[in-house]
Every structure is written in structure tokens, then in C-alpha cells.
Specification:
The complex is a heterodimer of chains A (444) and B (243). Chain A contains 14 helices and 18 strands. With 444 residues, chain A is of the alpha/beta class. Chain B is built from seven helices and 13 strands. Classes of the chains: A alpha/beta (444), B alpha/beta (243).
């Protein structure tokens, strides 16, 4: 009876909430009060795929959904990104029959790293994709090892883990598990790989198992690469799903030595997101032609890359999570790899849209030296924390005469509108601040 | 005017931008005419404190902290000798805990520490990262920053900050924070503590000058943009503390 009541209440509240534009957490929150174990009383679809990790969750989930849908599967997933237990409860109950059977062929869940253990207390995924673990939102997450420890209890022995073999901390989830319940994806050494580590810090320097010294044959970015511990022998695992070549200049990714995929966004991040999605969909029985077809025409719909016009100037917004230096580094690397002269704007105004903090340590973890390139003609630093940025840039090799400091995004926009160079603009900022720019531009 | 700054284990005790403390200290000292060398002591290296004029260790993960402890304990005699000579020392984040008597981890294991101070730390499985405004009799204006710890430290008889108007102290909200004994400074504040807090940076500079036997600088100029970073953060955190 309580289950029935919870499902009914959730459906009604979701319907009403939809009419008045309310968020998706409240119906689930109330349903959980009415029936705290309601998630354990449902009958989930045959495939339950969860995705977690520091970066790439939303993009990977969207790609998986697009592929599975193209393959004719009915997919239930949290499109709004409500990835804590309340949002997941709303999703499941609104898609359940009054008897508790969740409709659809596949339940697909983006799961918050720290809250996965609560969501999966009552049911568990058949497949769990873990993309990566980086320094991310220190003001909530502490540090990557802390997040690792938070995810671990959410991993049921019956769940098949789909792990990024190139991330040593993520790979540790396989230690002590049945090898048949772990599938691996990763990248072979290729054009994007380097022999030397690049970045302000190196979170792969010590072994996640024994703290021994790690050696890398190559790095793909940050601490992601082909590693081996000199102490205990812990090493990058062989992969089941492999990117065998990547050409970011041409925008071509090759999977398994034969399938070529055109990259709509020429970023190493995108490569890993595609690879994660490819792995999950392959394990769900989708054929390669369908996957390749969807991937090659796939444009990210999550709004993280936006093109626009600002006056006569063409612009590209590259959304980077504040408090996430790897996300910044990836987008800064993207700009560095462009060939034409350009202007870069960095906005740090509100550090988070979800909570308050004045913490800016993470700026010192970003490799802003990536912007020291001849084609980057000007760097405009904007927002409440523009001086934090400016002080940070004083410790980079970017020429001081290239740097402009403005205390608001509006002032940065005014500066650009007053310049007649017409150079393309790249803007790097977070969801919390991007509207301060987008309010002044004409989106494509 | 030569100065040698020793940075302990930057490869493992590096939670968020700790290296910036040494970077701003170096540049400030250079601005005052000093010739600065920075010796980074990697985890695989053995530290030589004999010629050190300043010793720094930053925060690490709980796991890294225990490995750093193991290394440092093997050189405790040399470190104590340096402190005895009056070398200024700054330990930030959970490096502070290593100066005390022990750290008890979340699993209940007790890790004996250096015993340079009479406090003990107990880790929990709960983490409360918080913004901080910290008041010290050594500073005219409060320090600002961030704390990222999962522990309480009790038995501190001489805190660096006697109260916090925002944040969690050694063992209580708003309570005393950190530790100071002569030229030995410790705080749970994490990351680039000296970057925003120019007054704390200047204090370190003055102590280094005193240790070297040099005439104290009339003023320790702020780096460009440094004062503004402090004012913005203090304003934001103060509004938060009131709200």
C-alpha cells in the first residue's frame, strides 16, 4: 500500500511540478518519505546502466541514450541530470506501473559519485561505467581518494564494472573482484600521447594500491595513460574496448583498429566519453554499425560547447567546471591546438551555482601555461575573482602585455566590442557563470 | 642575501595548489633583494635541513599523510634540530597533524607522530570542507581560506588563530585553530594559504629575515593583485558569516 501511495504521489507531484516548472527532486523526496524502501520494491528493466566519475557523466549518458534509442530500445534516463537518490526516485516512479514495474528496456542513470551508495542500496545496476576520478569540486568532494572510497560501497558483486583502464585510481575498483565482472576500455598510444607528463600536479605519481612509484610508458592527458607500479606491479589492464588511433586535427577516432568515428568535438575528453558509451552499448548487445552511425553524427546536446556571435566576432564557449582543473586543462589544450589567431576570455565570478564558497585554490592547479602560444593574442580575465586569476597568471609564462583584467563579464564584453580586430573568441567558464556571457551574444 | 626554502614532499603532499605558497614566498623574498633557492624534497629523497632557512609542508590525502609521516619520522632528529636553531617552519592542512603526538585514523589505528607539540588528532569518516575566517593576535586582519579535513585535533595549548568567525577550528566550530610555538607555525588551512593572506606571508618573511640575522624590512610589499584577492574573499566570506 505504501509503495502504491508513493508511486501515485510521485506521479501526481511530477505532473504538477512539470506544469509549474519545478525541479525533479521533490516528488522523489516525498515518495521516499512515504515509503523509504520503495526503490527496493520496484521491478527494474533487464538492463540498468549507471555512469559515474568526475567528468563526462552527462555526455556519456546522453551518448548511450542516443545509441540505445537508435537501436530500438526504450530507454529511461535522467535527462535533467538529477543524479542523487531523490531525482533517481522521481525518474523510476514516474516511469513505473502502479504495480512497480519500471517500463522500458534499459534504465540509464547518471549517478553522483558520493551518493551512488545511497541510490544503489535498494537495487543495483547490471552495468556500472566509471569514467575517471580527478580533483573535482574540492569544496564538496575532498579529494579523489575520498571519492573512490565513497563509490566503492555502491558496487555490488553482481554488477559488471566498465572501467577506464587508463586511469589508475578507477582501475583499482577491479582489485579483488571477479575478473569476469570487469570490462575495460582505454586508448592505445597514439598521436595525442606524450612521453612526458604535462600539468601542474601529477596524481598518478604514486600507486593507488601500494604507494610505490609509478612509471608511465605514455600519457594521454593528466594522469591518464599507460602506467605500471615499480613496487607491486599494478599496471594498466588490457582492454576489451580500445581506441587504437586518435587524430584530433582531423577529428577521427578509430575503435578496434577498424571502425572510424568522426569527432564533432575534437577533444580527448570526447574520445573517452565515446569509448565509455561504446563499451556500455556493446555490452547491451548493440551492433557496431549502429553505434558508429550514431557516434559519427552525434552533436553534444548538453550545451557545454556553444558557438555564437559577439558583434562582428565569432565565439565559442567551452564550458569547464570551476573547481576542476582537468576540465580546464582539456579546454585550454583545445584552444592551444587551434591554428588561427584568437582571443581568450576566462570568467570566474560565482564559483558554484549550487553552493557558496570563496575557495580558489583550484586556479593554482590549472595549467594556464597552455595559453602561452603565439596565436593566442589576448587573454581577458573577468569576474569577481579576476584578480585571483591575474595573480595566478603572474606565475605563468603568458606575456603580461597580453592580459586584461576586468571585474565583471559585462566589462569584458564591452572591451571586446570596442576592439576591431574581429579575432575569434574562446570563452572558458563554468555553468555558474556562462549566462553572464551568453546574455550578451547571439547564439548560433 | 641567500635564502634556502625547503619544500617537503610536494609530489605527495599536494592536495590543492600547495606549491603556490612557496612560489609567492620566493617572489616576495626576491622582491626584497634575496637570492632564493627552493629545494623540493621528493618522497623518494632524503631531506637535508642543515642549510634550510624555511621549511614547508602542505596538505595531502589521509593516505599520503601516513606515508609522509613514515619518511619524516626517519628524519625527526634533524627537523627538531632545525626548529631548535630557530628555522621558521610552516605546516599546512593535515601536515599540521604530524607535528603532534599522534593521528588515529578512521579505522582506529594510532600513528605516532613527531611529538613536537602536545596535541592528538582523530580522523573520522565524515568530511566537512569549509570556508574560513581566522583571527590571530599575530595578524592585524583576519586570515581567509579554506579547510578540507576529516579530523579533530585536541590538546592544542597555543593556537595560531584564537577564534574563527567562519569555519571549524581544531575541534569545534568557531574554536581555536592551528598551532604556534615560536617560529613553528601550523594550520589546517589548505592550499595556497600565503597567496591570499599577504599579512601571513609577510610574517613568514620577517621571521626568515630574523633567522638570517638580517635587518627587518621596513615593509613587505604585496604582489600585484594580491591585496585585491584578499579583500574580495574577505568581503564574500564576511557576508556569508553574517548571513
Amino acid at each position: 500500500m505504501r509503495k502504491w501511495l508513493a508511486i501515485l504521489a510521485c506521479k501526481v507531484l511530477r505532473f504538477v511540478g512539470g506544469l509549474i516548472g519545478r525541479g525533479s527532486s521533490l516528488p522523489g523526496q516525498i515518495a521516499l518519505k512515504l515509503c523509504p524502501d520503495v526503490l527496493g520494491r520496484l521491478e527494474p528493466p533487464p538492463y540498468v546502466i549507471a555512469v559515474t566519475g568526475s567528468n563526462g557523466k552527462t555526455s556519456t549518458v546522453e551518448m548511450i541514450a542516443a545509441i540505445l534509442t537508435a537501436a530500438g530500445r526504450k530507454v529511461i534516463y535522467n535527462k535533467e541530470g538529477s543524479n542523487q537518490i531523490e531525482g533517481v526516485t522521481t525518474l523510476l516512479l514516474t516511469n513505473a506501473s502502479m504495480g512497480g514495474r519500471v517500463k522500458g528496456d534499459v534504465l540509464l542513470l547518471e549517478s553522483d559519485e558520493r551518493y551512488a551508495k545511497y541510490t544503489f542500496k535498494w537495487f543495483h545496476p547490471t552495468h556500472f561505467v566509471i569514467t575517471n576520478l580527478y580533483r573535482d569540486q574540492l569544496t564538496r568532494n575532498g579529494h579523489p581518494e575520498w571519492v573512490y572510497a565513497a563509490i566503492e560501497p555502491a558496487l555490488h558483486p553482481d554488477t559488471t564494472l566498465i572501467l577506464n583502464a587508463d586511469d589508475p585510481l578507477v582501475s583499482r575498483f577491479a582489485v579483488g573482484r571477479d575478473p569476469a565482472k570487469v570490462k575495460w576500455f582505454g586508448l592505445e598510444e597514439c598521436a595525442v600521447s606524450t612521453k612526458e607528463h604535462r600539468g601542474v600536479y601529477h596524481d598518478g605519481a604514486r600507486c593507488p594500491v601500494c604507494f610505490g612509484k609509478m612509471e608511465y610508458d605514455c600519457y594521454h592527458y593528466a594522469h591518464i595513460g599507460r602506467y605500471r607500479c615499480t613496487g607491486c606491479g599494478y599496471e594498466r589492464h588490457a582492454t576489451d574496448f580500445t581506441a587504437t588511433a586518435v587524430d584530433l586535427d582531423k577529428g577521427v577516432l578509430t575503435i578496434g583498429g577498424k571502425t572510424e568515428i568522426t569527432l564533432a568535438f575534437k577533444s580527448i575528453y570526447n574520445v573517452y566519453n565515446i569509448l565509455a558509451a561504446w563499451s556500455a552499448c556493446s555490452l547491451a548487445g548493440v551492433d557496431e554499425d549502429t553505434m558508429a552511425g550514431v557516434m559519427s553524427s552525434y552533436i553534444l546536446k548538453n550545451g557545454r560547447m556553444v558557438t555564437f556571435a559577439l558583434g562582428e566576432r565569432r565565439g565559442t564557449l567551452l564550458t569547464s567546471k570551476h573547481e576542476n582543473s582537468v576540465a580546464y586543462d582539456t579546454n585550454l589544450g583545445y584552444i592551444r591546438n587551434q591554428k588561427e589567431d584568437c582571443v581568450v576570455m576566462v570568467i570566474v565570478d560565482a564559483i558554484s551555482r549550487k553552493y557558496f564558497t570563496g575557495e580558489t585554490s583550484w586556479l593554482w592547479d590549472i595549467d594556464f601555461d597552455l595559453l602561452d602560444a603565439p596565436h593566442i593574442r589576448e587573454v581577458i580575465l573577468c569576474g569577481k575573482y579576476a584578480n585571483d586569476l591575474a595573480l595566478r597568471f603572474d606565475f605563468t609564462s603568458v606575456a603580461p602585455e597580453k592580459i586584461q583584467v576586468r571585474s565583471t563579464a559585462q566589462e569584458g564584453v564591452d572591451l571586446l566590442l570596442g576592439q576591431g580586430d574581429g579575432l575569434p573568441l574562446y570563452v572558458v567558464t563554468c555553468f555558474s557563470d556562462r549566462d553572464k556571457l551568453l546574455a550578451h551574444v547571439k547564439k548560433d | 642575501m641567500e635564502v634556502k626554502l625547503v619544500h617537503l614532499y610536494p609530489d605527495v603532499m599536494s592536495l590543492y595548489g600547495e606549491y603556490a605558497n612557496i612560489a609567492v614566498l620566493r617572489r616576495t623574498l626576491e622582491g626584497l633583494g634575496a637570492e632564493v633557492t627552493v629545494e623540493k624534497i621528493g618522497y623518494e629523497d632524503s631531506a637535508d635541513f642543515a642549510l634550510a632557512d624555511f621549511i614547508y609542508m602542505g596538505a595531502g590525502t589521509e593516505r599520503a599523510q601516513k606515508y609522509a609521516l613514515e619518511k619524516l619520522a626517519a628524519q625527526a632528529v634533524d627537523l627538531k634540530a632545525a626548529i631548535g636553531r630557530g628555522v621558521p617552519v610552516l605546516f599546512t592542512g593535515n601536515a599540521m597533524e604530524l607535528l603532534g603526538r599522534s593521528v588515529t585514523d578512521a579505522g582506529g589505528r594510532v600513528w605516532p607522530c613527531l611529538g613536537l607539540a602536545d596535541y592528538v588528532t582523530v580522523e573520522t569518516d565524515k568530511r566537512d570542507p569549509v570556508d574560513v575566517i581566522a583571527h590571530s593576535p599575530l595578524l592585524e586582519r583576519p586570515a581567509v581560506g579554506f579547510m578540507n579535513k576529516c579530523s579533530t585535533t585536541s590538546g592544542v595549548t597555543a593556537p595560531l588563530f584564537d577564534r574563527l568567525s567562519l569555519g571549524f577550528g581544531n575541534e569545534a566550530k568557531g574554536g581555536p585553530e592551528g598551532y604556534v610555538d615560536g617560529d613553528l607555525f601550523a594550520t589546517h588551512l589548505t592550499g595556497p594559504v600565503l597567496v591570499k593572506n599577504q599579512e601571513l606571508l609577510a610574517l613568514m618573511v620577517r621571521r626568515i629575515f630574523a633567522y638570517k640575522g638580517w635587518e627587518a624590512p621596513e615593509a613587505v610589499p604585496a604582489l600585484p593583485h594580491q591585496a585585491e584577492t584578499y579583500e574580495v574573499t574577505l568581503s564574500e566570506l564576511s557576508a556569508r558569516a553574517k548571513g
